[in-house]
Amino acid sequence: MGLGKVLAMEMADRRVRGAVVARDLAELKSTEVGFHSKGLGVVTIAVDVTDQTAIASAVHSTEECLGPIGLLINAAGTVCQFGPRGTPR
Fold this sequence. Notes:
This protein has helices spanning 3-13, 25-37, 52-66, and strands at 19-22, 43-46. By secondary structure, the protein is mostly helical.
């Protein structure tokens, strides 16, 4: 489970209505099921966050469904090994 899903489910626990954006359809479906298990609806949108046009479309879709965005949590990123400079990866 990624950080984005953890945060989304925490918001669901607090009964916050919202949208979840991710590129992985299976993760979106799993998150949607988690929201529904708590008796909440959620807007899920598949998007690649490196695509500016797709992001704009996701924002538009979210605002059409839910109204103006009041809180945005961005947990997009990559997982990689890291350590002190000069350390083999």
